[in-house]
Every structure is written in C-alpha cells, then in structure tokens.
Write a sequence for this structure.
C-alpha cells in the first residue's frame, strides 16, 4: 500500500519525515504481519490491556495501519495532523485509553517496526519515530483531557423504536441517557450489547431534535456483526453505547449558498439531516438532492424526502437507480446544473464518494466546496 504525500514536497520534508516514510514504504508489502505482531507483542508484555480490545482483531489491525499511513502522509502538515490526532484522541476515550497506556503502545510499536523494517532501521530512524510518537501521543492525551472536562467518554442510549424498511435496512431511534450535542451531517460510533468493544460508525439521520432523540439508518451487510445485530436483533428497550459525535460535513449557515447533496444507499441518512437543518434555520436556499440506489425498492427514505419537498419549494429531489438510467450515480449530476455557487455534500459507499468527488471537480466545483465523510472511517463503517 503506497504512502501518499501531501503538504510539503519531498525536497521540503524534514529528515524525520523522510525516515518515517522510508519505514512505512519498507513495511507496506507486509503491513498485516506488522500490525499482528504489534498486538501480539502488546498483549504478551501488557496482558492487562487485552480486555480493552475486541475478541476479533481484524478491523482493529486495519485501523492501526490506516492511522500509521495517515501520520506518515501528513507528518509535516501540522494543521492536518493536529485535527486528525485530536479526533483520534477523543475517539479513544470510549475504549478506556488513559495517558499511562501510551508508553506501552509506543514501546510495542517501535518493537514491531524495528523487527519488520530491519533493512532500513537505524538509530536515526528510531530517534525519528520516538520524536514522532511522543508528539502524536501527547496531542491525543491533551485532546482527551480537554474533552473530559465537557463530555462523558460515552453515552448509554435506549432503543425506543425499530422500523424495518427493507429486508436489510432498519431505522433506529434511541434516547441518550444525558444530553447529546451534535450537528446535522456528523456521525458517531456505536457499540451493541451483543458485540462488546466492537464499535462501528453511523451517521445521524435527523437534525437535532427538541426531544433529544437520535435516529440512525442501518444496513445489514454480509458478515457485519454490528449491523446485523442492529437490523435483525435490536428491539425497543435494548441499550447501546454511543461515542462522541465527529465529522465536518456540516452546513455553513453564515452563507446562502445552494446545497448539492448526493446520498447513496443509507448514505441518504446525513443528507436527510442536512435538509432538516436547512428547514430548522428557516433560510430559503436552493437544495438539490440526488438519491442513488440499486433499485426503486432500495429508495427506502424517498417518501420522507418527497414529503419535505411538498412543503419546501426550494428543495429538489431526484432519484437515480440502475433501473432508471444507464448513467452511473453520481455521473447523473452532470446532466443538471450548473453548480456554480453550490456547496456539495456526499455520503455513501467509499467508491461512490471517490467517483463523486471526481465528477464534481470535472464540472468545475473547487475542492474547498466539497464535503464528505471520512473515507477511512467508511471502510469499516456499518460492518
């Protein structure tokens, strides 16, 4: 897996950044072995930490690798790295991670890297990683400490309704045990009682409500432990745990720019929340929603969107399915527009987001006006 670079060029990169990227390039072909060895080392040397992790470690290993790649990619880009590490630090609160755990994690990480990147591992490389890890861990510790002053590590939430919309899509509404502040367009992590310590990401499917209830759209995916439990097993009265809200796919209400919204599958959930957010703010601004699915039957939220359209003439809703058009979604967006003066919001499978961003750039929308969920998080969301 190649390490992509952004920010400073290779000529501008610091010596530490070059050494870190060289390490990542060395282990890339055997990355899964490296992360497996890291966790084996951690649990042998520090067995008391094993209970913090799920029984099955495949997703956890994948997330560690993605974190390392992210750090290597942006090691010289302070602004990007600071924001990423802040969210990472906040997210680790729900696992019970404390400041005293970080030295053990760092010790085992360096042990795994030095074992598998021996061909390029030198005292200078080790020193570079020590400096980088010290900076990384301190940023996460500081973010968690600040967040602890204003919010719990997690919320308990009772399922109050469970509606099966299709054979594999359910709409769940939950009541948190204490106020849960979030913004339309954000998402959270959820743990079920059936799979302890296994967290998956789900977007909020409604704007903040006066009654404090939260709604999620969940699609059961093959071999998806959490999603199948939520769709086929969860019932009113069950209690789940929620992490802190994250994500920046939110509306800038200081402008009156139009909104171009592309939602694929259950990715329509945050799009619906964004539309409701516009309604709540009472500002008339054009909102164009493209709702993509395989078949008409899979457009499970269409009645809700059409109901909003009937009462709000500034809202347009277009459906795109494989049955309706030979165009691939979101290529159908090219048929409409122009989109000058619009902010774009995309939510759905990672492939849809990547192709959608490409289409929007092709039609002249600058990257600064394109917002979407973290593709890295989506790769393990909903499973």
């Amino acid at each position: 897996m190649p390490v992509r670079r952004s920010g400073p060029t290779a000529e501008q990169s610091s010596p530490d950044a070059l050494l870190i990227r060289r390490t990542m390039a060395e282990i890339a072909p055997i990355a899964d072995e490296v992360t497996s060895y890291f966790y084996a080392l951690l649990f042998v040397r520090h067995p008391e930490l094993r209970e913090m992790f799920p029984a099955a470690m495949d997703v956890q290993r994948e997330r560690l690798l993605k974190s390392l790649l992210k750090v290597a990619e942006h090691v010289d880009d302070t602004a990007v790295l600071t924001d990423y590490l802040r969210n990472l630090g906040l997210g680790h609160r729900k696992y019970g991670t404390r400041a005293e755990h970080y030295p053990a994690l760092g010790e085992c990480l360096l042990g795994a890297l030095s074992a598998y990147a021996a061909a390029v591992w030198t005292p200078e490389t080790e020193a570079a990683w020590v400096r980088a890890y010290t900076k990384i861990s301190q940023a996460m510790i500081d973010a968690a400490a600040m967040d602890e002053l204003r919010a719990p590590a997690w919320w308990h939430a009772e399922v109050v309704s469970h509606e099966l919309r299709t054979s594999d899509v359910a709409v769940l509404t939950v009541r948190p045990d204490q106020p849960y502040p979030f913004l339309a367009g954000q998402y959270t992590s959820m743990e079920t009682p059936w799979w302890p310590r296994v967290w998956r990401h789900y977007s909020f499917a409604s704007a903040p409500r006066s009654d404090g209830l939260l709604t999620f759209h969940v699609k059961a995916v093959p071999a998806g432990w959490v999603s199948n439990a939520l769709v086929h097993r969860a019932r009113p009265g069950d209690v789940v745990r929620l992490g802190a809200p994250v994500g920046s796919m939110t509306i800038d209400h200081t402008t009156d720019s139009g909104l171009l919204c592309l939602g694929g599958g259950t990715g329509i959930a945050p799009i619906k929340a964004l539309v409701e957010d516009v309604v709540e703010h009472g500002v008339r601004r054009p909102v164009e929603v493209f709702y993509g699915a395989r078949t008409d039957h899979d457009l499970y939220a269409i009645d809700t969107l059409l109901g909003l359209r009937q009462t709000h003439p500034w809202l347009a809703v277009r459906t795109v399915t494989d049955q309706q058009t030979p165009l691939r979604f979101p290529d159908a967006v090219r048929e409409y527009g122009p989109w000058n003066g619009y902010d774009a919001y995309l939510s759905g499978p990672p492939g849809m987001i990547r192709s959608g961003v490409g289409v929007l750039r092709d039609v002249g929308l600058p990257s600064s006006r394109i917002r979407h969920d973290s593709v890295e998080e989506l790769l393990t969301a909903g499973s």
